[in-house]
Give the backbone structure.
Amino acid sequence: MMTSRERVLTAARRGKADRIPLDIWYTGEVRDRLLAHFGVATEKELWARLHVDRIVAASPRYIGPPERVLADGTKIVPPWWNRAREISYGTGVYTEIIDWPLKNATTIEELERFQWPSADWYDFSDIAAQCDAWPENAIHGWYVAPFFWHNYVRGLEQSCVDLIAEPEMTGYILGRITAFCWEFACRFFEAGCGKIHIVQVTDDYGSQRDLLIREESYVKWFKPIQKKFIDLARQAGVLVMHHDDGAIRRIIPHLIELGVDILNPIQHVCPGMEMDGLKRDFGKQICFHGGVDNQQVLARGSVEDVRREVRDCMRILGAGGGYILAPCHNIQPVTPVENVIAMYEMAWEEGRY
């Protein structure tokens, strides 16, 4: 019988493990409800109850400039210095960005005066020890998300406009993001001592219906940055995961060309993301991670709906290997506990090859 690490890495390399590996993403509220339901104290115990082959994160400790709390209770949050507040939606509390530090900048001089993040703000000294604490799990580490972080400093709307209307500003911002991420990644790999298995060269280009930006803009601005970091991962012998919500079918061939190994989260309710088409067209070239719908089925469906969804994901995405079953993003607090349990019980019962 394979360990969780062996199972995940076999699937990530598009192979067929002893069974379909299972991963889990959830909000803090969902985690706490599951811990209480099973009467366990730790996530490790919880994952064992759910038969989860959790991909565990290793991360450096932040030691940089602290966040600043304003008089109205909002916070200026490092390392990108956006303004955020906690907002309750009744079932869960989320930290939401409400202002962006460079949203009104119009000159390179303004960008130069910004306090850009530095790898010196992080302590990497215990990365290897974090990895050693999970000898049976796959370990993932740093991620780079240039479009997402462009959004963080300029706001989503302005960062999209920048790609067309402000090429000089865009080049400067992405250059600073890339420089920070490169130094961070190099220090991370050095500290990890060869114990990292997966990194995320990722972003969020998709909406519910199509890409947020033109494919041409992706190719011009972001594909070269991703290539730089994927090549670095390849030199370190590490697999690459790409997280991208929504309808991203048009850029999947680019991701495969770059060498992405794992595609997450497979939001198959979006146009072009139908599971059978993805498996048919790309299943021999990339591993799929996710797939279980958490917008409708997990959150609002019956236990039988969940079991049917899991069975479909395993039958289609899992055919012949190359699949890690998980929700297609964090399980949300509106999701009944019995639906979460049904997802993993069904996968455990019928997920063996």
